[in-house]
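Bit of a strange request maybe. I'm writing a small parser for structure token strings and I need a real example to test against, not something I typed by hand. Could someone generate the tokens for this chain?
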Amino acid sequence: MLAFLVKHSLIGMFICALLGFAFPAASNALFPFLPYVLFTLMMLTLVGMPMERLVKRLCQGAIWLYALLHSAFYMLIFTLMGVLIGVSDELLLAILGVGATGSLFATPAIVRALGFDALEAMAMTIATTLLLPIALFIPIHFLPMSQGSLDFVTYGLRLLIFIVGPIFISFSLHRLMPKETLQRALLKISPYTILLVFAFPFGLIGSYRGMFDQSITQALVYLLIAVALVLFFFAGTFFAYRQSGVQEALTAAITSGNRNVLLTYSIAGALLGPAFLPLAGAMQVPTYILPVITRRLARYLNCRPQ
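Reply from user aminoacidic:
Good idea to test on real output. This should exercise your parser:
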């Protein structure tokens, strides 16, 4: 059964989003536990990566240029578009929160399932996650649309727990445990991490279902915005990296399209406004169908996995 889930993990994540929408009570019941799932997944993903090679990738300037494209560039574009179109303050704050959000820590597994360079995706994911505090600080502290004040103590503690914590634990395990022992443990544990990934689309979409029950029209608008955001991230990044090759462009594009909205909410919480969670829930549908589309796109472009 586990082998079947791993083999069909890409479509399985999308099905979990649909199941969460169909059973909102179960989705909402799982939601409070998602931060613990997130922490565990981030730690296990990092532990499974070759640290020396990963650090070398992180020292490359190209990775940090990608991180700036991932957050700063899109946040600037969304701010200009929001002001010109006249988007409400609550919705614009939510969109900027999504723009600041780093990549999903499940992205390397998704990229590996597509046959591309998972280490590159991991380096991009870490870089965007490390930039998240700065990118997120700007809209929730300086923009007048943000409701409430930023508690720096709470903000700092959440950063330590959800970003520094998994990185510190993974580096410590690589330093303290014999390499062979660590690899044997990872071989036993890693297949089960896919079950953790399934929890995110299922548990996050419940807030969107609540909006759907109150106003179908508003929910459809949010779904269209979510689809547009994911497509904008994917297409914009793909064409920015197209000259580097199809595999590199698709790796960067899917890393940009997959956004760790739960981590952003875990750090900033209600400071992101009431529109963020419904938008984050709506994003589960396009986010988790994106890998399936990417696989078909790779075949269409005659991109042969390494």
